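3.2 Worked example (two chains)
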Amino acid sequence: MFGRSKTIRGRRSRVLIAVLGASALVMAGCADNSEGSSSNTGSCPTTTAAPDPAKPDDPASALPEKIKSSGKLVVGVNIPYAPNEFKDESGKIVGFDVDLLNAVAEELGLTTDYREADFDKIIPALQACTFDVGMSSFTDTKEREQQVDFVTYFSAGIQWAQQTGKPIDPNDACGKKVAVQATTVEDTEEIPAKSEKCVAEGKPPIEKVLYDRQDDVATNLVLGNVDAMSADSPVTAYAIKQSNGQIEAAGGVFDAAPYGWPVSKGSPLATALQQALQRLIDNGRYKEIATTWGVEAGMIEKPVINGATS
């Protein structure tokens, strides 16, 4: 489900802390997600639905006919990345991203069909039209926009956390153990750059500790196995909240960038999603959903298609 090299940051953070009882998931590759007959496997739908004369401003009029006829959005998701997308105790996929995309689908007269996949297989599956849209806290980047289009819906940055009462400076963590999720932007860009700076200044490098799952990152900080963790801001905020005071923020949020829902390149679905989300922003439902999950700090006022800043 996360942020990652600008190619992989997209972030899905999965921060269902294991010490609180989160269970591991075996994530299926997109090749295994065809069960249940994907309505859009094959050539990507480009023909839009016929507009409803009675609803000239209806976002659903921009939907590809194939998607509107099926009545559902096939969504590729990688979890856990709380609070954005993860499973509750009953095994249901929940989170901020989930509630928001469900609301957008409702605006479009559609239901959502979530299909788990490895994070790095979601964009290829969109290109192959196995999925209609991706939902895994993808950071919209110029590099990714070469492969897919994005509809922005949130602004997230990087946030560090530390054990309570044991301060760590994110700008001077030389010689410290810092946990990150593998393949995230924190792994591929942020920590290497900061570590190189340490070495250039004659200080010891940062010891980057990699975990495949974001919840393991938070858990090992809680347990004191590392000095700090670095992740997307909503993920870190949620980890702090769930730790019951055992960890706290280390410094402020930095390097903010937009989260976006990826769709196949040139798909009119992007316009439909953008227009439906704007309705939710205008009528207050977007704020209601963000507030429920405690991520209102990252709300945006206007979704755009391909809004990468770097």
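3.2.1 Second chain
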Amino acid sequence: MRYTNTQLLSSLLSQGRINANNLEEILDISIKRVRPNIDKIEGMLLGVAIGDSLGNAIELIDPNIRLRRYGFIEDYVSSLGGKRMGLPSDDTQLTFDTVKVILEDGYLNPEKLAKTFFSHEIYGIGISTSEVRDRYLRGMKWYECGVESAGNGALMRISPAILPSLKGDENHLVDAVLDTIITHNDALAIGTSIAFAELFRNLVTSVNEDFLANLPERIFRFVGNRYYKVRIPNANLYELLTREIDKALKRDEDTLTFCERVGSEAYLGETLSCVLFIVKKFREKPQRAILEAVNYTWDSDTIASIVGAIMGAIYGKSAFRKEWIDGLSGRLLINGKDGVIFEMIDEVKSWLSS
């Protein structure tokens, strides 16, 4: 009989291995089993792959230079064999690694998940995840490898962590923590994953018009007094995620101006700011929201994948243009099999419906 993930997290907390506050609060939460909207589950997972593939060939290019070079991007830039198509980066790969482990084991098995992450080439791997991979391959245990980094590499893959809680008695908040610490043992990374796991589960099981209202408070419940930098003078990260975003929205600031001002790189403080601004501003225009993330941010694949997952969780497949779905290769490896992503999404739908 295996230890539950709640028991595992409790043990790690008692050993002082996790760098976040107040995690004991999530151990005894009673998770109500509810029937998800299967179309929204499909949209959430597709949104990761579509946003990632729209942004991954042009990431880390100054958005102003990108606009001059490509114009306003509305379709895939990647091509293979002379054919334009949506190809994956690490956002898609690690998200669907998580799906794979959940489908095989019926729950989020963090030990197996770490092994799966580092069993293949990872495209566009971040600095933190690369360091973790080196630690893991040197023989460190999965829960010892995570670095204290506030990068966005855990948030980008967190959406499938809700799946076991929709099928059985698993705690999606606990699963989000264990998934995150494989690579990012950091308070902001952990708090953000918890908050977004809660967000995604709420979106695929109900309609909540005010779904972003308490997200910063939820994140900072687990961050405590740790300091995280921001580019805005005389502001801290919590103020940026609340007051500064609201002020920018009230004066109808455009995405490019906002993201240049606050930053839009792989640091979570910047990623969160851009995601929240874009989703709040373009809540009723899901396709436009994804394209704003693709065109006006530095870390365009990851920010677009997160925005895509949120929009998919709200609207289902209707969040995406038909040509985006048709042009998605569905691969997890560049030279791998087409359509794997679609097959795995169908498996998830069947698994949750059974």
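3.3 Remarks
Strands lie at 79-80, 83-84.
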